[in-house]
Amino acid sequence: MTIIANENIHLNEPIYITYNRAGFATTSDVFNLYGFIEDYPQIWTWPALLGGSLDRDDRIKALTNDEEKKNIDHEYRLSEYEILVISPTLGALSPTRSLLQDIGNRRISYGEWIDRIHAHHSSLRLSHARKLSRSASLLLDSLPTTIKQDSSHINYENTRMQFMKAEGKEIRDEQLDALQAIEYRLAYKKALRLAIEVAESGGFLEEFDEL
What we know:
This protein is mainly α and about 210 residues long. It has eight helices and three strands. A three-stranded antiparallel β-sheet has the order 1-2-3. The protein starts with about 25 loop residues before the first helix and ends in an 11-residue tail after the last helix.
């Protein structure tokens, strides 16, 4: 394998790489292109048509920080709600370019992520967080299976495949593909659930007209 860098790399300097392409590919994009669910951080989106429409003006009005507003441009997924998932319990609603730009470029500590997300949410309007949460809740409730059911199914299939391997039986590609699909939809549901939990946790901008 030959790797070409577009800038000088110093001796012993760490190199970071991600399929995420600095926040411009969602976890769904990575799954569709490469067939696996990437590790954290992950970016999940869902249609804004559920729970109310969303357009460029909504995204701009949701933010109160002028520098963050400059990061809203045509490259953003303006027709979708979005969450940046750092861990099963830490996520950023409607992340901006400034929050995503270092993904894959340098290692960010968990504590730094907490500080960044706190600052981001403090300039995100509470009304927008509630709208996003309502959309995620409607979508989650509309899905045919639950997080608990998918988790149980995955555990069952993994146990069954272990027995098949022990007995020398072949595991077909179709079985592995089916299992990956269930793992994908489970991760998606967990991201939606996290979005709801984050929206309800507070820390957003509350204005008098929203109280």
